[in-house]
Amino acid sequence: MSWSYKRINIISLLGNYTIVPNDFIVEGEEMKLLDFCSPVAGEHVLVDGFGDDAKLIHTLDEEVYEFCSRSLARPLFSHRISSLSAFCAKFLPSVTSGRIYAVVDVTSLDLICWDKSGLLLANSYPVSQLTDILYYILYVWKELAFDAENDELYVLADASVRIWLFDNLSGYIRMIKPVEMPSEVFLVRK
Predict the structure, then answer these.
(1) Domain end among 79, 108, 134
(2) Nearest-angstrom CA–CA distance, 138 and 133
(3) 137 neighbors 156 (Cβ within 8 angstroms)
(4) Which helix (H) or strand (E) holds 81?
(5) Residues sharing a CB contact under 8 Å with residue 106, sequence separation 6 or more, in sequence order
(6) pLDDT band at 189, cuts 50/70/90?
(7) What stretch of H or E contains 79?
């Protein structure tokens, strides 16, 4: 690369991750915590801040990590769930009811759920068809005992998918809103 950059942000869209309260983290032992949830052989373990009380432990392929570290100027690695959570947390002071942010990608669905007490859930689900998205959203909605009249669902997806979701979820959830995420959300600062 011939251009000079102050820093390059590398946002992982894949890889295993888990959110761990700060009280349970021992520096240098993060791999054990993540390995407890899913195997991490051949992967580099990274840690992102996740609010004031937790860390997001995630992985990146070891070869990709080494290549980027060696080839890029001051790379900053993060996971997209960290960026999405930070974006959603900005709206916490205005949260008076339950709120789910659903971020739909081609092969995955990220759900970040909040209420006035704070973060309730952050998870990613595999998606192979549109009905998978309906299932996960409605299942999480039910498990969190969200209210169909007062709690809110914010959807970030391509227009066609968003319209399809609105049409199919409006019989179950009254307050469904689109959300646009500015690109600077992914310019993580550490």
Answers:
(1) 79
(2) 9
(3) no
(4) helix 80-89
(5) 127
(6) very low
(7) strand 75-79
CA gap 101, 140 in Å, rounded: 11
Q: Do 36 and 20 touch, CB atoms closer than 8 A?
A: no
Biggest CA pair distance of the chain:
55
175 φ, ψ (degrees, to nearest 5): -105, 90
Give the residue-averaged pLDDT of 63-74.
Answer: 90
In a domain, 85, yes or no: no
Burial class (CB in 10 A: 0-12, 13-18, 19+), 1: exposed
| Whether residue 31 sits in one domain with residue 71 | yes
For 147, the token pair is 């209210």
Q: List, for residues 3-26, the tens digit of each pLDDT value.
A: 677 778 888 877 678 888 888 888
Kindly report the pTM of this predicted structure: 0.82
> Where in the sequence is the domain holding 136, given as residue range(s)?
91-181
**pLDDT tens by residue, 84-122:** 888 777 777 677 789 999 999 888 899 999 888 888 898
